[in-house]
# Entry
Amino acid sequence: MNDLVAEPGPSSEEPSVVGQRLHAVLGGARVVHDLRRYFGIGLPQGAGVFTGGRFEHLAGGGDRRQVANRFTAEDLIAVQTLSVTVPAPVALDLLEGPLGTHLSELLRDIPSDTDLSDADALLVADGSSAHRAWCLLEDQYKVGWVIAGKLLGP
# Structure
């Protein structure tokens, strides 16, 4: 059972404060409308939608066989849909330099259909390819944890 949103019952505790807030938001009258608006479902192109809804699916997504395990210009634009900008020198190194080559080698060790937030602990453990890719971006290239997370995200 998820301890964040525990179902009340005879043998369980009341939901946490976060769980109560989550239930209130997801049970709200506008939740379906808001999700449709965020993802632009049923709305004309550019009709007040949020750009972050395109992050995972821009140009068909970054896990397509043709582009898996390497960074493309679409990946950099996808990150921008989340209001994050990769510094230009890092972006160029990702696309044309040794950073892109090194990260491609590390990404080959991670199944492209893996969501790192749900990954087995061994896949993201210290010393793993995912961990080394994270450290390369955050520590050596100083992009910060937010940008590193978005670049290595879904």
About this structure: Helices lie at 17-26, 31-39, 73-80, 88-96, 98-107, 121-124, 129-140, 144-152.
